[in-house]
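Collaborator request, handled under Task 6.
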Amino acid sequence: MNRQPVAVFDSGLGGLSVVRHLRRLLPHEDIVYFGDTARVPYGIKSQPPVVHFALENARFLQQFDPKLIAVACNTVSALALPEVAEAVGVPVVGVLEPGARAAATLAVRGGAILLLGTEATVSSGAYEAALTRLAPGVRVIGVPCPLFVPLVEEGRVASDPIVAAVAREYLAPLRGQDVRVAILGCTHYPLLRDAISAALGVGVEIVDSGRETSHAIRDALAAADALSDPQHVGSIRCFVSDNPARFGRIGSRFLEEPIDAVELVPPEAYVAAALDAARQELGL
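Structure tokens returned to the collaborator:
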């Protein structure tokens, strides 16, 4: 048994949808979450700043002695996962590979796989590369859906007429392209799942990369004999780089449970954590 926490980070709120699945699947695990709300969104940024921010986030979480770090951000998973894995001394699980693996399993039925994500995630080609490796010959259609994230963060739900209209604008043209599987390649998108499904039409399987990631985390912990005591009641501790009150209010929708407290981390704290880690690597 291993009582060390599982650490999770995201560019903001969306990673809580991964934590929601994780809390249900592994209720005995303690979770430490960091949302980089001061620098969100990552999905419109180029690779260098995403790598820089991701390393700072991961190194901040290292102070809690986690047994695993989950990168609950598709953009970071697409652009910076190898750098994070190399920088920390614990297993790292991203959201891209589990989502791609689930979609590739469904792809045996034929048809195209649709990737819905941020501009950075779609343009990176990382999902397409993973899917091509897992299901050679599969046709992948990538569609950036940049308005979905602000709609979710405004508190709009899948039944909102504006959400439905935006979903139709993005997705209705795909109905004639034999799409059989759609990957929700951003952790905000599960909150709009019903609107996305309606816009795509019947017969399209939806893959929630957050749900698949929770199973990948469980499998990684089990393989390492690092699961917590099943009698333990797991806790969650949330940190953000800006606006904790807003995070607590909106984040409870992602988590589907109240968030009792959110702790603000000033910039100097996560920058200092990254500098300390760099010094240790250099032996200074």
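The cover message to the collaborator said: "The two ends are 34 Å apart (CA to CA). The chain is about 45% helix and 15% strand. Please let us know whether this matches your experimental observations."
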